[in-house]
Amino acid sequence: MRRVCAAALAVLIASAVLTAGGCAVGEGFDGLPDGSTADEAGVSIHMAITNALKGGVDQTQTSLGLARFKTQADILGVDLLLDLGDLYYGNPFATMTGGESLADVIREVGYDAMLCGWSDWGYGVEKLRALERRSMVPVLASNVVSAETGEAFFGTPFIIRDIDGVRVGIFGVIDQALNRWTSKAVYEQVRFRDPVLAAQRAVSELAERGCQVIICMSSVSCAELIARSVPGLDAVLAGGEDWTGLDYGEDDVLRDVPIITAQTGLEDFASLELTMDPERLHVERVETRWYSAADYADIVPDPAVDSAIASRMTVLTPLFGEILNVTPVTLRAMDPMDPYAEAELPRLVTDAYREKTGADAAFTFAAATLKDIPAGSITYGQLIE
Fold first, then answer.
1. Which of the residue ranges 60-74, 121-135, 161-175, 185-199 would you say has the lowest mean pLDDT?
2. Exposed, middle or buried by CB within 10 Å (0-12, 13-18, 19+), for 334?
3. Could you tell me where the beta strands, DSSP code E, fall in the chain?
4. CA torsion, ordered 314, 317, 319, 320, to nearest 10 deg
5. Closest Cα to residue 248, out of 234, 228, 264?
6. Nearest to 95 by CA among 65, 133, 57
7. Of 21-25, 118-122, 376-380, which gets the smallest average pLDDT?
8. pLDDT tier at 245, thresholds 50, 70, 90
């Protein structure tokens, strides 16, 4: 019975073993019509930035929720919606469909681009590209290349937008350490190259294309290095959960380059406004603000995004009650009073890891299993809880 339960659980956690909106896949999307020029008025470029949603969409006590985020972004009149990665894996809303349910919602939100975080590779290499196509949100990671050919893995290395006559270029790079962190299956297909060199090349190309504002989306672990090492940047947007070296809520200015991040899971989102000087030669002012879930709990959700979430939940909800197996005994979770004691449920999780990966040994965070599964039927919903 344990083996059957482990196999079912392995389906749910397989992607934990890390193994485009509006722009065509190609050499880069250039949104500035030929011959367009900036007028004489000052211009501000306004962005709304989310980070590490981990598959979450609903409003909670600690999360604004995607439908309310969309409403607030529209109220602010932002020019760009950007996500800093670790988007598709985590919450059952996403993982039970391999990210597809979330991709449908993200399409309605209308993000301009996203960075790929380490967990976004959890569904596999080709699945991530399929999610990019389904969501119509380009994944910007210009230092990710095919292991076989050495060519760029994602088709869109950057986007360029015309905002009131100012040409804005945005590109992304992720931490080269993923060569060590990711799964064998992913490493067999892609490589993660030096992010600084990739950033330098991207800045050079965007400058050649006439970009007056250049923004890098980066893994937080290499954001400071990029800010220090890559001339020509106006801001670095740092994505991920490891904020070592970043003081949240403060702009860390290196080489006069602000580094901006946001709390994970839509506990807040960052608003970044860059204002050009009157001659439009450089950014003269950077303003940041963070909008928290607590401050905007009563905001009306965007109807299109709300409808997309409800539509997917209609499909997912019956799956939570699906019976996977039966247990004659209670599967005990971790005992907080004795966290090192043997317990059936953490053991089941590690058995599932071993069965899925073929590993000789597996480890799990026992504190993640705090609710017993009583004797009787075992459902998807119980495993997820």
1. 60-74
2. buried
3. 29-30, 44-50, 80-83, 113-114, 144-146, 158-163, 166-173, 190-192, 213-219, 235-239, 259-260, 268-276, 283-292, 323-327, 376-379
4. 170
5. 264
6. 57
7. 21-25
8. very low
Q: How far apart are CA 258 and CA 234, in angstroms?
A: 7
Residue 11, C-beta contacts closer than 8 angstroms, at least 6 positions apart: none
What residue type is assigned to position 237 of the chain?
A: L
The answer to pTM > 0.70 is: yes
Which amino acid, residue 42?
Answer: G
Residues 6 or more apart from 277 whose CB is under 8 A from it?
42, 283, 284
| Higher local confidence (pLDDT), 271 or 320 | 271
Phi, psi of 322 (to 5 degrees): -65, 130
Return the amino acid letter for 155: G
- Residue identified by tokens 């799990």 is 364
Contacts with 126 (C-beta within 8 Å, 6 or more apart), sequence order:
none
Buried b (16+ CB within 10 A) or exposed e, 351-383: bbbeebbeeeeeebebeebeebbeeeebbbebb
Q: Residue 29: what pLDDT?
A: 42
Integer CA distances (angstroms), 175 to 21, 226, 237, 247, 255, in order: 24, 11, 13, 20, 20
Q: Residues for the chain: how many in total?
A: 385
Q: Where are the extended beta strands (E) located within 84-149?
A: 113-114, 144-146
Q: Edge-to-edge strands of the sheet including 44-50?
A: 113-114, 80-83, 44-50, 268-276, 283-292
Tokens of 77: 């009149």
DSSP letter at 302 equals P
CA dist., res. 115 & res. 143, Å (int): 11
pLDDT tens per residue, range 324-341: 889 899 988 887 777 777
HSE-up of 347 (CA within 13 Å, CB side)? 10
Confidence class of residue 42 from pLDDT cuts 50, 70 and 90? Answer: low
